[in-house]
Amino acid sequence: MSKTSSAARYSVQPMAEDGHPDKTTCIHVDADGPIRAAEIALGETLCVHGRPEQARAKVWHLSDDFAPVSVTLFRPVSSKA
User: What is the pTM assigned to this prediction?
Assistant: First the structure.
């Protein structure tokens, strides 16, 4: 029997231009992971590493043991050869 992944509820808090969370906006999304949730909410590709000024969203999720977990996601930096 194969196990299928199910969507979970995430809260996406966009970052303001100054790199701090926008305390006036929170977007609730059902997705299969925090990166996908933020990409759905913001409509852009994001990654888990970057410079502070590239921060685009903080994604919140309540774990199975009811502990809040968050991850900050960043705008990808394009590499130039």
Answer: 0.81
Q: Within 13 Å of residue 3, how many CA atoms lie on the same side as its CB?
A: 1
The answer, yes or no, to whether residue 42 has pLDDT greater than 80, is yes
Alpha-carbon torsion angle 20, 57, 29, 11, nearest 10: -40
> How high is the pLDDT of residue 8?
92
Rounded Cα distance, 70 and 34, in Å: 9
> What Rg, from alpha-carbon coordinates, does the chain have?
14
Instruction: Say yes or no to pLDDT of 28 above 80.
Output: yes
Contact by Cβ (8 Å): 22, 30: no
Report DSSP state, residue 75: P
**Looking at per-residue confidence, does 24 or 78 come out higher?**
24
Q: Is 56 exposed, middle or buried (0-12, 13-18, 19+ CB in 10 A)?
A: buried
